[in-house]
Amino acid sequence: MASRRLAQIISSFISLASCWASFPNCTFESCPVCLSDGEQKPLVMDGPDGQAYAAPFRIGRAAEYWDSQSIIANVLGILVSEKLGIAVQYVPAADETVAVLAMSNCENWMSGECEHIITDSISAKAAAEANNSASGSKLFEDPLPDMMFHSEVLGWAERESDYSSVDWTKTRLARVGTAGFLSNDLLYAFREMVEEAWNSTGIVLDYWKTYTTPLASSYFETPRQLMAAGVAAETLGCSSSDVLVQAGMDVHTELGYTCTQESWWLTPACAALGNNWTDECIPVLDDDWGYVKADLYKEMARSGMRLAKLTVGYDLHYELIFNFQHRTLFHWWDTDTMFLGRRPVIVNMPASLASAEPPSKVVYAPVLAASEQLKVLVSNLLIPNDKLDQMLQHAATAIDAELFDDNPQMFQKVACDWLRANPELVASWLPDSRACPPGQAYDESTSQCAICPTGTYSARNESTLLRECVLCPPGSFCLEGGTSPVLCPKGSYANASGQGECMRCLPPSYADALGSIDCKSCQLIIPGGTTLFAAATSEDDCTCPEQTYYRQDSGCTPCTEGLSCWGGLGSPKQAKGYYGKLLPEYGMDNQEWFQMFKCHADARRCPNAQLGVCSEGREGLACTNCKDGLTSHDDGTCAECAGNDPAFFALACLGVPAAVVGLYLLLDNDLVAKQPHTVLLVGIIGSMIMGVLQQLGTIASTSIEWVDPVSSMLDMLMVFSFEIEVLRVGCIASFSPLLLYVGKLCMALMMLGFMLLVHVAVVLLRHRGRFRDRAPTLIRSIGTLLLVFQIAIAGASIPPFECSTHPNRFTTVARYPTILCGWEDGGQEWQAMAMIGMFSTLLVCAWVAGCLAVIYQLPRQIEKNNEFYMRSFTFLFMRFKPDVYWFTVVPICRNLLVSLAPTLPDSTSQILCLQGFQLLYVVVVAHYSPWRVRLGNYLDITITMALLAFLSCAAFFVETSSMKAVAWLCSILVVFMFFLNATILGLAGFQLWSHKYRKPFSFFLCHHKAGAGAFARLLKLHLTELCSKSLRHRHQKVFIDSDDLKNLEFLFDYVGSQSEHIVVLMSEELLLRPWCMGELVTAHLHQPGLKMVPVRWSDFTRPDDEFISNYSSHVDCSCLLPHNITIQMIQSMLGWLRDLPGLSLPALLTGDAVDHISRNIVSGSFARIQDAEVSADPSKTASKGGQATGAAVVVIADTSNTESVSTALVLCKMVSPLTTQDPSLTPRYLEKDEDVAESVKTCIFILSNGAFFEASFVKSIIQAARIETMVLPIIAQDGFRFPGKEFLEDYKQRASSMLAPHGILEPPEILVQLISSLFKEIAIVFSPQDYSSTEELLKVKSRAVNDRLMMRQMTRLSPITLHGKEEGASDEMTEPPVIEKDEDANAELCLTPDESELVTELF
Q: DSSP for 574-585?
């Protein structure tokens, strides 16, 4: 065997040397040119993005397993590069299937899959990135092959179930025929074994039937011997997780193979041997599961061959077969040189496998489009099997002789030798450079064939026999690369030479012949006619266009409003929502054979149908009426009346009288004004509900075309607008429009008449016939009824004037469309309705005028104490607060305007006006908050805003034709907004300019609330009074934060920009308050324009340098940083303020001292005062030890407490104006060391902490007790310590030692008794220093004090007995003192609800 193998190698070497004698000692690298040398250029191809790119022609070359494909690839490469001058690049393809999938732009091609065909560059790049590869798609430049000689072709992929969902039509591959030769993928036997069997026994091992018997088994090893030798399957088991492996196993299973434990697959005949298969079956070695030979496997199983197949993998398969290690059968593809040196013998199978499919040439289509010569060469390339066998034998000999280490170099050498040896065959493949194929012509400038451009065709010149490009004649077109002109089809034309396409005949023209040069017009057949589509081919296609209809006399007539014209030669139809009234006296040839009316009431009543057709059950003009016995339904049709339909009318007939009776009984109450607020709130809510229901009914009666479900809801609500048709009165009897109109008006009269009957009955039965006394109840009841149903009554009056416009010249009553409007067209029925409507409208206007007159007279009647007037017309003002009693005018006018809105001409104006009315109303309500119950204001605003939102949504239902008017309105609104902004800006600028010369505040009071709040309030009262008398300050105010500061952000602006002077009340802790420091820094920054006057308290300490430099450690001023006020600014201000001259407040504050300070400030003389202490005028100060003679009411305070004295002076100043009716009640402040005179009847004690230890205060209590005055305690401090048990015990122990030096010698028990007696009277809180104590609140408190003084029913102090105690009196307070803070007490003081609420919130 070894000698035979050596002889074969020597023979092959001699043969190869003789074949290559023409290239002695030459490799391809040193002799690169095979046929001819020339310049090679890349191909210029169109990319998918429309951009051209240049690249070589890439030929896929199999890598180490398919030698025939590799050699043919080199054959084609040499011809393309050296004969066509196109650059070539060989691309190794490890798997031709994967390469073809990549060339097809299959997503996930790298895994041998094709999820779908990628058709854009973005998706291709995304797929490449997902596969971690910069290449992988023919959609952009990459090293993938442009051409493959493929054995399995695309049909295999198209048939595979894994690719069944792929649209292969999207691929850009082209199959350019076959390679010419056939490849056999069959079963082979070693030649040595075949010859041995034939020579020894005559057994034929190369015929399939031999293997159906046990005759051949003696020449083969058994499967048992192979297993013993270690030959095993590549994949163990009968299943695998690998998709390709499992697919191959599934094929075997389907063909009837049996898998053994050792992974052998037995044909049915082999498996039938049972356990003997390992000794009797012939072993067959296969290469790989991924390469399935389904047809061969099928024949092996079907033919009865006793074979056991083992798949060992490519490497082991090559090793075992190439070295002939075991005597077996094996699979091999004979177009490969792998086993060619062994000269294997084919086992002849049944005739069905006699022919194999030739390999295909698969090319990337843009490559062929780039070069026609390349396309011709690739198409012509065909290699017969005998020629291929020569090349393969040369390659196999070289391989066996190991002459080449690099297979590609060897394949190139073999291809070159073969090309030189077969010049005739090669010449038949190459294209003629001047003989261009059909569709092209030779271009002398480029010496190449070029495709004839669009508008020309390729024709052979009879003289030169060469093709040239000729212009297309008129009436025809030529595409790029065409070979003859094509006549224009019917419906198109070409009116010039050289057309690349025929132009379509556009409406209104057509072309009825082939090769037309021009189109014919439909206007010559039908005036105004056209075709409904382009490229019409006959005059029968001529018709009337959309929005026109055909008339015999005038042709195509424009479609007017209300008609539905879809073109054609038929009659028009009425559009949905329109009714076409036929005029039988006219014919179709007349211009007026129908009249169009718009169905304003409900578009569903008039369907899109033939003229004059109504919805089911309807008839009459605009399909208004239901036929007899039918009633209207929500869908626009009329149907038979149901059995319960009359019940709606019956319920209304019973419900309305019952409601009238209930309303009368509710109003038949003389104490209406004293009813609880809950009853009043219920009445307010009821009136609002009735109002909004009627407003919705009015909105429903506008010309807006509503749709369900809102349409049905609004129809039901129209019953509150007296629309009796909603009650289905048509099921009771038929009524004419005039009777329905009069009936609606009579509903109000019937309700008023029934109210009169109820009044008569109630007065007779309940009030014993006192009609004169009960007249206010009748007026109140009738007025309430008219007020509640004002919108319905007014709305019921206007239908004659609510006319709808139709496409013709007529107008009809919107609610009764069968009646024409106008004195000329309307007839007697409309004239009667108009007369009644004008009269009823005048009555409504008279009612409104009467209400206005009543409201106008109300103040005068109140002054006259006209009880009859007040009781009669409470329905107008009882719902509103007394200070806005007139507000009833607003809803009355609003309701009147709302009821008149439907008379406007179109939906747009109606919605705009209704929105304007509601918007104006809600602004007025929000401004005045008029309702007596606060919740009523919120509810009214909420309901009105909901109505505004509803009206805004209603705008979407409007189809307006007056878009120009809407545009003008929007423009006006835009101009108005700019004008409003400009006006406000101008006013702001004017205010800024005016502030420069006259600021709104003359004086700004900077103070610390706890230390100088009460004095600041007192000073404001004095300054305000003096400013009112000064010509300079008459129109200016005095700023105090509790009254004027609404927003803390504006605090410093008030100081710097809006005040002329800042008065600094420098109490002890002023400099420790950061906001006060901010005010002072602002004042400092605005010097010298802002004048500052300090008023220093007696206990105020000027800041020293140490305090100023370390100010940040004393006070946290971080809250001022957002206002750009720094600690450095504060320190600078403190140094400036320390040396600023000013006024010093006396330790003992008096009224004269305050007056003197105020006058100095207003007069401006403070600028000349150098820290002078201000004291009272001696001439105005009471003498020591004197009495407050003549005063009946005195105010007593702790004279050592400046804030307590200030509170007393504020109280005197605010109560005094309230005592004009009884001047004896004017309070007077009791100054220090003044005695309580005998004339004093009431003592008002200002209670502050420490007051009971102040001698003058205690002395006044004792003096008041001796003369038994009435007392009124005033709590002046929130933190006032009430004298409880512990306080009184402590007071007993300390009183003697503290008061005796001042001449008060009464026993402590008596003092305790007197202090306790003070709190038997309800105390009133009066704290001017509190931030919440606004001037309005203090006025309320002052009124409370005045009311208490006027009642003269306060507690009197108990007289002092000689024994020190009143008999039975206790020296302890058993109950805590009472402070007036409940609402009942406020009511006793005659406070308004707002004042009561203010007082209640304070506590």
A: EPTTEEEEE-TT
* Helix/strand/coil for 545: coil
Nearest to 1175 by CA among 1195, 1151, 1200, 1205: 1151
Residue 28: the pLDDT is 44
Q: Which residues contact 1179 (CB under 8 A, 6 or more apart)?
A: none
User: What's the predicted TM-score (pTM) here?
Assistant: 0.45
**Distance from C-alpha of 307 to C-alpha of 261, rounded to nearest angstrom:** 16
Q: Which residue has better confidence, 390 or 1193?
A: 1193
| Cβ atoms of 765 and 661 closer than 8 Å | no
Contacts of 1371 (CB under 8 A, 6+ apart): 1288, 1292, 1309, 1312, 1313, 1316, 1365
Phi first, then psi: give them for residue 286, nearest 5 degrees: -115, 160
Q: Judging by beta carbons within 10 Å of its beta carbon (0-12, 13-18, 19+), is residue 165 exposed, middle or buried?
A: exposed
CB 285 within 8 A of CB 279: no
Distance CA 105, CA 120 (A): 10
Which residues are CB-neighbours of 977 under 8 A, at least 6 positions away? Answer: none
Q: How far apart are CA 73 and CA 70, in angstroms?
A: 5
Closest CA to 1117 of 1101, 1136, 1134, 1141: 1134
Structure tokens at 211: 């293997």
**pLDDT per residue over 1170-1215, tens digit each?**
444 554 444 444 434 455 567 889 999 988 888 899 999 999 989 9
- CB-based contact 469:457 (threshold 8 Å): yes
Would you say 271 and 280 are in contact if contact means Cβ atoms under 8 Å apart? no
Q: Is the link from the previous residue into 384 a cis peptide, with omega within 30 of 0?
A: no
Distances (CA, A) of 411 to 391, 407, 1275: 9, 6, 120
Residue whose entry in the numeric block shows the structure tokens 């800024």: 992
The CA distances from residue 1073 to 252, 445, 832, 1076, 1078, in Å, are 99, 100, 82, 5, 9
1176: left (phi over 0), alpha (psi -120 to 50) or beta: beta
State CA 560 to chain mean position distance: 41
Asked if 1330 and 1401 touch (Cβ cutoff 8 Å), the reply is: no
Tell me what pLDDT residue 32 has.
67
Residue 892 has pLDDT above 80, yes or no: yes
Strand ranges (DSSP E) for 559-660?
563-564, 573-574, 578-582, 594-598, 618-619, 625-626, 630-632, 638-640
DSSP 443: E
Q: Please tell me the distance from the alpha carbon of residue 359 to that of residue 395, in angstroms, as a whole number.
A: 20
Q: What are phi and psi of 715, to 5 degrees?
A: -60, -40
Cα 1068 off chain centre by = 59
Return d(Cα 1141, Cα 1092) in angstroms, integer: 10
Q: How far is CA 588 from the centre of its chain?
A: 54
Instruction: Return the amino acid letter for 1294.
Output: R
* Highest mean pLDDT of the ranges 59-73, 90-104, 466-480: 466-480
DSSP state of 120: S
> Can you tell me whether residue 101 is helix, strand or coil?
helix
Q: In a 3-state reduction of DSSP, which class is residue 1395? A: helix
